[in-house]
TrEMBL record:
One of its GO terms (molecular function) is glycosyltransferase activity. It comes from the Bacteria. This is UDP-2,4-diacetamido-2,4, 6-trideoxy-beta-L-altropyranose hydrolase. The active site is at residue 27. InterPro entries: PseG (IPR020023). The lineage of its organism: Bacteria, Pseudomonadati, Pseudomonadota, Alphaproteobacteria, Rhodobacterales. Substrate binds at residues 182, 289. Keywords: Hydrolase.
């Protein structure tokens, strides 16, 4: 249940983030987690999102937050001098900046939080109003920012990656100890870790993202159906209701030789992960959910920008990287891994390693930084 709304004189925060079939749901979902903790701390949070196919406006409002839904795009975005993901904005950055600034002027927020790969320092300077500080949520370190606070929760990331990309004096929260997860994962962590002792493989969770545009879920199920070592396993598929292939996945699940449950728009992910023995998934916020609960994982990337993070996690021994969905041999690697004679030992090592990477408490550290606290560990990373 959400916390009670803050009082009318509560400090204001505006969050600019989008979801769509191209972008996925991860940016908005992690912003919702941060927004809920900010609300519990006493802030009033307003979202600004664009009316893109697959947007999560209804979800934002269902969580009790105010939403300004910007108009749907009417033209093709051409930005040869902009960020690599400029087209994700749906409109030219100047248009988005003007529309977002109108919300800023009406709200007078203490902070603007931006979680969007399409925007760089130009948009940020054009959008900020006097007296408002800026937090940027980034994963790429590929463009300049005009921010006061920057969050990059990727494994192996350090402040040095943003040298020359942020102003002098910008505070940088770098590394997975700042990963933003719902508190339910930290709560479930002790019991989940204890229950992993001595477990072999009985139940697999397949979670390839809320949208899963390439239907990696269906491709994983096809491999599992043909893999003898997987025929005695229970399989749970987790998808968002906006996934284009959801009906095809449901039909495929019914035809599988294994027992397959398809769960849609789940609100109890921590419970589901805790009872799973192995996850097959993409890279994103769910990476740190799995680590919090010590859930061994086989990773399959479905976007180019996921590959560096996936390789880092693989190299740390916290998960096994099967490859990219476009690679021709990832399915054979999955079948080999499931049939390996030392499978149980591999799972124990991964469980221990990933649990050491992250404790599930990052959202509190980020809220503390936004509240001006200096009593947090900055610019560091935890090592396995």
């Amino acid at each position: 249940m959400s916390a009670a709304p803050p009082s009318y004189d509560a400090p204001q925060i505006v969050i600019r983030a989008d979801a769509s079939r191209d972008i996925g749901t991860g940016h908005v979902m992690r912003c919702l987690t941060l927004a809920e903790q900010l609300r519990r701390t006493g802030y009033a949070v307003h979202f600004v999102s664009r009316d893109l196919p697959g947007h999560l406006g209804a979800r934002i409002q269902a969580e009790g937050f105010k939403l300004r839904l910007l108009p749907a795009p009417t033209e093709t975005v051409l930005a040869p001098d902009g960020p690599a993901h400029a087209v994700w904005a749906g409109v030219p950055w100047q248009v988005d900046a003007d529309q977002t600034r109108a919300v800023m002027e009406a709200t007078s927020p203490a902070w603007l939080i931006v979680d969007h790969y399409a925007f760089d320092a130009r948009w940020q300077k054009a959008t900020l109003t006097q007296g408002t500080r800026l937090m940027v949520w980034d994963d790429l370190a590929d463009r300049p920012h005009a921010c006061d606070l920057l969050l990059d929760q990727n494994l192996g990331r350090t402040a040095d990656a943003y040298a020359g990309l942020v102003p002098e004096g910008c505070r940088i929260l770098a590394g997975p100890q700042f990963a933003v997860l719902r508190p339910e994962f930290a709560v479930a962590r002790p019991q989940a870790l204890e229950a992993r002792t001595g477990r072999d493989l009985r139940r697999i969770t397949v979670s390839m993202g809320g949208v899963d545009l390439p239907n990696a879920t269906g491709q994983v199920l096809s491999v599992l159906a043909q893999t003898r070592a997987a025929h005695d396993l229970e399989i749970e598929v987790i998808l968002g209701s906006r996934a284009p292939a959801i009906d095809a996945v449901r039909a495929q699940a019914e035809a599988m030789p294994q027992t397959v449950e398809v769960a849609v728009d789940v609100t109890d992910m921590a419970v589901r992960m805790a009872r799973a023995d192995l996850a097959i998934g993409a890279v994103g916020g769910t990476t740190w959910e799995r680590c919090t609960l010590g859930l061994p994982s086989l990773l399959l990337t479905i976007a180019e920008n996921q590959r560096p993070a996936a390789q880092k996690i693989h190299d740390a021994g916290a998960a096994h990287l099967l490859g990219d969905i476009s690679d021709p041999d990832w399915g054979a690697e999955l079948a080999r891994w499931l049939a390996a004679s030392d499978r149980a030992a591999r799972m124990r090592v991964m469980a221990d390693t990933c649990a050491r990477l992250y404790d599930g408490s990052g959202v509190g550290r980020v809220v503390a930084a936004l509240s001006g606290s200096s009593d947090i560990a900055l610019n560091t990373e935890q090592q396995p």
